[in-house]
Design goal:
The protein is an alpha+beta fold. Helix content is about 45%, strand content about 25%. A hairpin with a 2-residue loop joins strand 21 (about 605-615) and strand 22 (about 615-625). It is elongated.
Length: about 850
């Protein structure tokens, strides 16, 4: 009996225990179902569940809103493939067939094939609404399985990408829908396991972070994205107060912000965060977020928890800020423009202006916008015609109109306008820029008047030029007559009987040579008239190529070093002389070297070489490592003003340098050519006629005499002759041979002359005027500025024999001004006078520095 009672009692206790367990299971199921309902039927994304064959079984309110169908219209009737773009479905099936190596038929199978194999699948697809309109969606597909892991259907969660710009409004709507769908989800008769699986799939698939709490604001769930943003895992956060997990501050004040969970739990209402809210993760990292919170209710409508839905909007804020910055920058450009800028719609109504347009018309921006463009010009019909012309021709340039200011009168402007379009290529209107051309028109008239004056002046100048040519021709005749006698009698003396002595022969030879030189000089004077008429005559003589090249090297090396270009001057034979104009040869080489540097690549090289290309020809080649020239460009190389596409480059030029170079080389009897390879470089070369070496004056190599030389004769005086003509050097040296107390030093240019003067402190300096480098006048100024050389008398010896040249030279400070050809008596008197002056010069005994006596 007792045993029976005990069994009955135990049975009663057992039954009561089972009831409590079942009740708890039901409560858990309801809570899970409520949370599932709050998410699955979100209006922010579509949830479509199918059976294993793809026929729609669940079509949530989000799907209804996005696609325009009611659940009744699609459930048990169609598959998701029927509301998708068929071409994209076909393309997906083809791509998957290639990717997975198995044929996949177009249709529903293509949408769920990966999910059916247990592969996570999220893809983009175009959904077609009931009204035929389309929208892009991001679709997440998950296979639904029973307890035995068999597929019982598929869950397709889609998000409308076009709606993301209104995320805040949609989040609000999402939470409102969550309340409305709680009762619907409670009616779902599914097992707790299936509900949990679906919930997990949903939370893992949506693009937002989700945190769920119970009624005490303790965390019950974090989806993976919430874990990543907060830095807390589900295991770490579960059971903790949401304040510990969801740490937010105001971005501007950096003060803690209130979490909306407590208000949602207390009032059962949807709450949202203010803008500029920052989430601080567990590791201290930060991100801007948008957030909303909705209540979780049981079947009786009792609030049993809250769900936080939030997302990282840092990138969106950055884009918005960049857009605002770009708008500000664009506006700044418009307002800073010196032209009056106007935008109109296609009908000619003003939509925007800048401050210059306000100043042009006297109306404010607000007054101008919305009014016809034509209203602000003296000829409205022409202004309107301009807008129409832009619309038909896409643009106009230099379209003149007269703008009318409401107070200050009229302004002539030149309009340049073009049509503009939006990102979709739709015409938006006309953009026009007006520039005040009143001053330009005045200057045009002034220019026309000046042109007329210049034309008149040109006529007068041409008349004067013709008169000058006539004068030069007449002067040529007057000079040639006595010169003919000089050359004739000099040659008779040279060939006479008895023959002249050796010294006389040398002197006669110099007279004849100087005579012929004078004849050439006369011809050069006549060439001046020819040059002005477009012709040129050159002075051809034996030119030492090594000397010319050394001068070119000295001139061009600084330019090369400045640009990082290495120039390699290969050895020149000192016996190579060319029959050419020395000045023009130097001009040609400097031009080619300069081009090789200017059009070279950075840290490039230039190689200069000279070879005997033929028995009577010498070739100088200049090879660079630049970009090279194509065949087409080489064909245009020697065309005047053609820079071969370098007009917009960083190197200055006129495009005539090579043309002048070519003509100069050809006038000297030479040829010019080029070989080039694109990407490798170019090699320019000139060939000149070979000449024999001339007889140079003794002692012409002066640099070795920079050091003073001891002399035992205390009475010996020193003459320094600065002259670049070897014949003149030799002539003066022979003249002073009869002056037993004087020895001569020589310098070939002004710079060396100054150096020798400072080193030797000569008693007298004989100075040519036209010298390489600094001329004789500049050299004199340098000597006068140096206390050590200021007292030395300097005699000018120059071919500049005009009275004005002599007066200018004496005013500059020369002791005497002698002209060429040299008159020996005059020269010797000037030399003796200078030596006597130097003997009695004040301070002579006090001067310091090296001496030769």
């Amino acid at each position: 009996m007792s045993e029976t009672v005990n069994d009955s009692t135990l049975a009663g206790h057992a039954g009561k225990g089972d009831g409590i367990t079942e009740l708890r299971r039901q409560e858990a199921l309801l809570k899970t179902g409520a949370l599932q309902n709050a998410i699955l039927n979100s209006a922010n994304f579509s949830s479509i569940a199918t059976d294993e064959k793809g026929v729609i079984q669940i079509f949530n309110v989000g799907a209804e809103r996005m696609l325009g169908y009611t659940a009744a219209e699609v459930m048990n009737k169609i598959t998701p493939a029927d509301i998708s773009d068929p071409q994209e479905v076909i393309a997906r099936s083809e791509a998957l067939s290639v990717e997975l190596g198995t044929p996949i038929a177009p249709g529903f199978e293509a949408l769920v094939f990966k999910a059916s194999r247990g592969i996570e699948d999220i893809y983009e697809l175009t959904y077609i609404r009931k009204d035929g309109s389309r929208f892009p969606a991001v679709v997440s597909v998950t296979a639904l399985r029973d307890a035995q892991n068999a597929i019982i259907g598929y869950l397709l969660i889609g998000t409308d990408n076009t709606a993301r710009k209104q995320v805040e409004a949609e989040r609000q709507h999402l939470l409102e829908v969550q309340e409305e769908t709680n009762k619907q989800l409670q009616q779902t008769n599914v097992t707790l396991q299936v509900s949990e699986e679906r919930l997990a799939v949903t939370l893992n698939s949506i693009g937002d972070a989700v945190i769920a709490t119970d009624a005490s604001a303790r965390v019950t769930l974090l989806n993976p994205l919430a874990e990543r943003l907060t830095g807390w895992t589900q295991a770490q956060a579960s059971g903790r107060l949401v304040d510990d997990i969801f740490n937010i501050i105001n971005k501007e004040t950096r003060r803690a912000s209130a979490i909306p969970v407590m208000d949602t739990l207390a009032h059962g209402t949807i709450q949202g965060l203010a803008n500029h809210t920052v989430l601080i993760a567990r590791d201290g990292s930060e991100c801007d977020i948008a957030d909303s919170c909705a209540p979780i209710r049981d079947r009786d409508g009792v609030v049993i928890g809250a769900v936080l839905v939030f997302r990282d909007v840092t990138g969106e804020y950055a884009v918005q800020q960049a857009l605002r910055d770009q708008q500000f920058y664009t506006r700044s450009l418009i307002e800073s423009n010196i032209d009056a800028l106007v935008m109109t719609d296609p009908s000619g109504i003003i939509t925007d202006v800048n401050q210059q347009m306000e100043a042009l018309t006297g109306f404010t921006r607000d007054e101008l916008i919305g009014t016809p463009f034509k209203n602000y010009f003296t000829d409205p019909e022409r202004a309107e015609a301009g807008i129409k012309r832009v619309l038909s021709e896409k643009k106009i340039t230099d379209y003149e109109l007269t703008a009318s200011h409401k107070i200050d009168g009229e302004t002539v402007v030149s309009y340049n306008a073009a049509t503009f379009f939006n990102a979709d290529g739709k015409l938006q209107g006309v953009f026009a820029a007006a520039r005040d051309v009143t001053e330009r028109k005045r200057l045009d008239q002034v220019l026309q008047d000046k042109n007329a004056e210049l034309e008149s002046a040109r006529f007068v100048a041409e008349k004067a030029s013709r008169a000058k040519s006539d004068f030069l021709s007449s002067m040529s005749h007057e000079l040639r007559t006595p010169l003919n006698a000089i050359l004739g009698f000099a040659q008779l003396l040279e060939a006479g009987s008895p023959p002249p002595t050796a010294a006389q022969t040398v002197r006669l030879h110099q007279i004849i040579k100087a005579g012929w030189y004078l004849l050439e000089l006369i011809n050069e004077i006549l060439d001046l008239a020819v040059i002005e008429s477009g012709q040129l005559s050159l002075s051809r003589e034996a030119v030492s190529l090594i000397d010319v090249m050394r001068e070119c090297q000295a001139m061009i090396e600084p330019q090369a070093q400045q640009r990082g270009i290495h120039i390699d001057f290969l050895p020149f034979d000192h016996t190579w002389f060319a029959n050419a104009d020395r000045t023009r040869v130097k001009q040609v080489l400097i031009n080619l070297l300069s081009n090789a540097i200017k059009y070279n690549r950075k840290l490039g090289t230039v190689k200069v070489a000279c070879t005997a290309s033929m028995p009577d020809r010498l070739r100088i080649s200049i090879k660079d490592s630049g970009e090279g020239l194509s065949v087409e460009k080489m064909a245009q190389l020697f065309q005047p003003f053609n820079r071969l596409g370098q007009e917009t480059g960083g190197e200055e030029g006129t495009g005539i340098g090579l043309v002048v170079t070519k003509r100069l080389v050809e006038l000297m009897g030479g040829t010019i050519g080029v070989e080039s390879t694109v990407g490798v470089g170019s090699e320019f070369w000139i060939e000149l006629v070979v000449d024999v070496a001339p007889q140079l004056a003794a002692g012409s190599a002066m640099p070795a005499e920079l050091e003073p030389q001891a002399n035992g004769n205390a009475a010996l005086r020193t003459l320094l002759y600065v002259e670049d003509n070897p014949a003149n050097l030799m002539l003066v040296e022979q003249i002073i041979e009869s002056h037993t107390r004087v020895r001569m030093l020589s310098a070939r240019d002004g710079t060396l002359g100054v150096a020798l003067a400072r080193a030797h402190l000569p008693d007298v300096i004989l100075m040519d005027i036209n010298l390489p480098g600094i001329n004789g006048i500049e050299a004199l100024k340098t000597l006068r500025a140096d206390p050590a050389t200021a007292h030395i008398p300097v005699i000018a010896l120059s071919a500049n024999a005009m009275p004005g040249d002599v007066a200018k030279g004496l005013a500059t400070g020369f002791f005497r001004y002698l002209t060429k050809p040299i008159k020996i008596d005059e020269f010797m008197k000037a030399l003796d006078s200078a030596l006597e002056h130097e003997e009695t010069a004040p301070g002579r005994a006090d001067r310091s520095g090296p001496r030769d006596d």
